[in-house]
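Sequence design from tokenized structure. All designs in this work follow the same two-part layout: the structure record, then the generated sequence. An example of the structure record is given first.
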């Protein structure tokens, strides 16, 4: 390519600009809605990814650091989308996790017992609603607890599937690993929020 053609080649967007934009949009959105949490606006925000597609949320916030407000919002929307797309499997893993875990995570997550697909969809909505019209740190803690319980249940299901369905066991193990990482990120974000340092 002749050198003069480089003048007409448009590069990708500056990563620093994308990250700054992610932080600004997250801060503006959360602070404005929390200042006046109109139930209709909150309901639209909870269902945003469902209406616009998870890619729209990813474009806004997926490049942000895990321990940041946009990073936390991305993870909450991603979690809600996982529950929405695979509610039967998630409810099975969650129920198995509840059976295995006697710790505080089951209580903090706040799902009814028993929790089927519809109850977990409602829980995912309730957690996301808490970001905009509730205690943000508590919403993050609840999401982290939900991830921990579901990760533990996914591992247990993977153990069951391993002898006869190794491919399914591998998928469940990967899901458990991602959920465990998500739980760690969300817990750390909740701590930052309580310290006034989640930006």
């Amino acid at each position: 390519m002749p050198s003069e053609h480089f003048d007409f080649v448009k590069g990708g967007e500056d990563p620093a600009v994308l990250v700054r934009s992610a932080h600004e949009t997250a801060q503006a959105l959360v602070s404005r809605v929390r200042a006046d949490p109109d139930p209709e606006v909150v309901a639209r925000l909870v269902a945003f990814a469902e209406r616009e597609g998870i890619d729209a949320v990813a474009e806004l916030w997926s490049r942000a650091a895990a321990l940041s407000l946009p990073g936390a919002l991305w993870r909450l929307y991603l979690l809600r989308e996982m529950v929405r797309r695979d509610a039967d499997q998630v409810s099975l893993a969650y129920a198995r996790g509840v059976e295995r875990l006697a710790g505080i995570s089951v209580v903090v997550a706040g799902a009814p017992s028993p929790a089927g697909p519809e109850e977990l969809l409602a829980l995912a909505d309730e957690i996301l609603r808490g970001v905009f019209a509730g205690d943000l740190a508590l919403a993050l803690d609840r999401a982290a607890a939900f991830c921990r319980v579901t990760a533990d249940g996914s591992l247990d299901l993977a153990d069951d599937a391993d002898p006869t369905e190794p491919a399914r066991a591998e998928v469940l193990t990967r899901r458990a690993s991602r959920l465990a990482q998500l739980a760690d990120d969300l817990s750390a974000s909740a701590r930052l929020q309580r310290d006034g340092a989640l930006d």
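Residues 23 and 48 are 18 Å apart (CA to CA). We note this feature because it recurs in several other targets discussed in the main text.
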